[in-house]
């Protein structure tokens, strides 16, 4: 497999060539010569943008190490679901929905890929490419292909060049972003079409909204607002006798995923787990924040979050232009869509009190759409060279926000084995005392142990992050964790809490800090040793078995 050192000269030469070629192809459809407006050039330009995105991300994709603890959560959960496919029975992602896990399982099983960070980031980049593709289709339908290409190019440059770990790891934002981009495309397709509403389109529109619920609950405000305006869209395009029929079709698509999940939960008796560990966990986020306005205000000074500053500046410019200069006091359908898209995205990002930067990924495409609206307004009064210039300036600005040191690579993969993952000292102990078809239990955060040993998770959580929060859910989480641990004699238990260099230290969160857990481990397990500050316990029955076979 391809690997990268700290200064991959040939790679950066390729970046320069592909970036320049993509930039030239992107501006070509906006040039006056009509020969450049043919569909062939447009699709080639889009293809180059997507190829540039992938090429820029290559060093990160092949860097087979965790960039965020959430990556371990998704990959380990997906590997477990391949053996025990019922989410909320064998796996629980707490605030993340089941579809983020199943998509990793499906990818790895269908394409026979190992459960590792490379596979997860391949899925992430594919979903990101899909989001750009459907956003292009939506923008081309609203405006034209040249505006669509020019407005997308700065976002492609940023998403390809950024090295911020929260933007480049596989996260729970990738799949909902993809589904929302499909919803936007379907909306504008229905809006612009002069034909009667396509019933398959409105069903899929509703279906995507329903699926968003089970990717990331935080994205519901966006899907909900798009769905509301989708109902509004149906009304003026229909005669009265078709209105109810199409509203039912849209609603059916939306509630179908919910009904299916509820029926499965009822059949396998885990409906209460959905409510407690998915709904309540998400609702608990943001309870201690100072409110939406305060969170936005604080984030304005965050050097990483230029998204909200760009959103506010572009929104103010467009509002002043359309209200004061064009005297458009009544919003258009597309104006309403854009306003709801922006507002609902801001609510989704900041409702929690702005805790993690990867939430900002939701703001990428609202900024792209606002920029496209601006380019379209400017194009009404000037030659296309002006909008080309604006796109170039926006690209330079976004590249500057990546804090990229040219010709330097932060993700060095040439000095370590990529596939399979190397096995740590703790991993060797797990392999020594457990069989391939057995599960592992980790108290703390050491998801890589599951991946390097290929052991599925024994309890629903592959880490105990939720056990460290001092809210009303903590006791319930720990109770469930210990109850599942007691259900069967797992051969190996690992306490991964180190003694220093983290806020999750052993003295605060080690297994001995929970009385019931300590009693169970001390009674049934024996400490084998400590390896890289991870304590390995082996079940006493397993030790007896191994001694008997010697």
UniProtKB/TrEMBL annotation:
The chain crosses the membrane at residues 12-29, 41-63, 118-137, 142-162, 174-191, 203-235, 247-266, 306-324, 330-350, 359-379, 385-412. Keywords: Membrane, Transmembrane, Transmembrane helix. The keyword Transmembrane applies. This is Uncharacterized protein. It comes from Emticicia aquatilis.
